[in-house]
Design a protein that fits this description.
Structural class: alpha+beta
Radius of gyration: 26 Å
Oligomer: single chain
Number of strands: 16
Shape: globular
Order of helices and strands: HEHHEEEEEEEEEEEEEEE
Strand content: over 45%
């Protein structure tokens, strides 16, 4: 009988050992899954002087970066605090330098350090760009610092796939939130219905409009369907009425631009990519 009990004990021990290995494997798999869901959280609130690289000297590259910078500012609805960057006398003062890469939502973004030296102050900023995409959503200003008679600053809080822009300025300005998705910075909203109006009022064709407006619906926090927006435009040098459709946060189809009431310009987009411009 003793050999029989001894054999039975060995079989039970092996089964227990096998169960232990299985449980350990399951726990190990769970740990791996948890690690894969961890997101990077950090604050961009200063310039890393050591990371400032070579100055951009190539004219075509400078022209491209100026266009990208202007598109980035235009997406923010309100007239940028530093709107006069693109005034002719200041345009030549813009300097671009290579800067370090940033990781947001597992995506690497190229960045550029920008500065302007004024007689009575200086301006610095950081521009993030996904240079593999040709859309108006491929870039974002994540840092600004103006030290002059009136100071202005912008910081960015990165939380997972979200970028919150935080302003500190003499002029009231609402903080912005963007979602990084497919390498693009998309406007992010908590509400399924957006109807926001602020700024000065004006009358166009008998209708009352505010200086800035956002009106439309969202799906999964992104703009979808038909939207009416009153936003600052560098092309017109003022706020203009813009209306058209979004698909998952991207402008799509024909967009009307109406500075004084009637449609003055039509821009055509294909899922965020600019196609053409025409005048009716």
């Amino acid at each position: 009988m003793k050999p029989f009990f001894y054999l039975l004990f060995l079989i039970q021990f092996q089964n227990c050992k096998s169960d232990t290995v299985s449980i350990s494997t399951i726990l190990s798999n769970k740990e791996i899954k948890v690690e894969n869901t961890i997101q990077d959280n950090y604050l961009i609130n200063s310039i890393d002087k050591i990371a400032i690289g070579k100055k951009i000297e190539e004219e075509n590259k400078i022209k491209q970066l100026k266009t990208t910078l202007k598109n980035t500012f235009e997406r923010e609805v309100m007239r940028p605090y530093k709107w006069d960057i693109f005034v002719e006398k200041n345009d030549t003062l813009l300097q671009f330098y290579n800067y370090k890469d940033f990781i947001i939502n597992h995506m690497k973004f190229k960045s550029y350090y920008i500065k302007i030296d004024y007689e009575d102050g200086n301006y610095e900023s950081i521009l993030l760009v996904n240079e593999s995409l040709n859309t108006e959503y491929n870039s974002m200003i994540v840092y600004e610092e103006l030290k002059a008679e009136l100071n202005h600053s912008r910081n960015a809080q990165i939380i997972g796939d979200k970028v919150q822009i935080i302003f500190k300025s003499p002029r009231p300005s609402e903080n912005l939130v963007f979602q990084v998705k497919d390498g693009m910075f998309l406007d992010y909203f908590d509400s399924p219905i957006v109807d926001k109006k602020w700024g000065d009022k004006k009358i166009l064709n008998g209708n009352e409009f505010f200086e800035y407006e956002l009106k439309g619906n969202t799906n999964n926090h992104l703009k979808n369907g038909y939207w009416i927006e009153v936003k600052y435009s560098f092309e017109y040098g003022k706020s203009v009425i813009q209306d058209g459709s979004y698909i998952n946060g991207l402008r799509n189809g024909e967009w009307n631009f109406s500075p004084e009431g009637p449609v003055d310009m039509i821009k055509k987009f294909d899922k965020g990519r600019f196609i053409s411009k025409s005048y009716p």
